[in-house]
Specification:
- It is a single chain.
- This protein is α/β, with parallel strands linked by helices and about 180 residues long.
- Helix content is about 40%, strand content about 10%.
- It has seven helices and four strands, in the order ααβαβααβαβα.
- It has a four-stranded parallel β-sheet, sandwiched between helices.
- The protein is globular and about 45 Å long.
Length: about 180
């Protein structure tokens, strides 16, 4: 249940930041990526409800939402919705679940992609996120692929093959 996934992201980033020299990574211009439900957690990381501001963390240079559930109907019959907020959710929690309703002009730059034939996450969710980012003036790139389904990772042997190269290219442009 929320906010536990966001707390996990914050704890992981704190661990990485505290051991940056040991891990040989930079703490500047970091990116957070997530797939499917993890894409929802990643999208939430950009909001004031469950994101970097709440945890006093630096703003990420980029969020990568791979077939992420960014728009979730407040429907008690929806398993994904219930898994995030429980059976008797606080109204504020319900509002926080819909990432598209919580995109502000200071939301991090975002790279999102999804296949139109995704059987689990409605393609309309990605379109709604694209529109929310556009409306807020957030730098972003949206890639829509005809075929590939859901749970395809790097998208090898699907229409989405090569998405990671595009994401890295976009990350480089926004992290300067």
């Amino acid at each position: 249940l929320l906010p536990k996934p966001a707390e996990d992201v914050a704890a992981a980033l704190r661990l990485i930041f505290a051991n940056a020299d040991k891990f040989q990574v930079s703490t500047e211009n970091y990116a957070v990526a997530g797939f499917s439900a993890g894409g929802h957690v990643t999208g939430s990381w950009g909001t004031n409800y469950f994101g970097y501001p709440r945890f006093g963390m630096p703003k990420p240079a980029l969020l990568v939402l791979a077939y992420g559930a960014s728009k979730t109907k407040a429907d008690p019959g929806n398993f994904f919705f219930r898994s995030m907020v429980g059976d008797n959710p606080d109204p504020e929690m319900v509002k926080a679940v819909d990432i598209t309703a919580n995109v502000t002009p200071d939301y991090p730059a975002t790279f999102l992609w999804q296949c139109k034939d995704d059987p689990l996450v409605p393609f309309e969710a990605a379109e709604a996120m694209d529109k929310a980012l556009e409306t807020a003036g957030v730098p972003h790139r949206f890639m829509a692929f005809e075929k590939g389904g859901h749970g395809i990772g790097l998208g090898d042997n699907t229409d989405a093959a090569g998405w990671l190269d595009h994401a890295v290219e976009f990350w480089e442009t926004v992290s300067k």
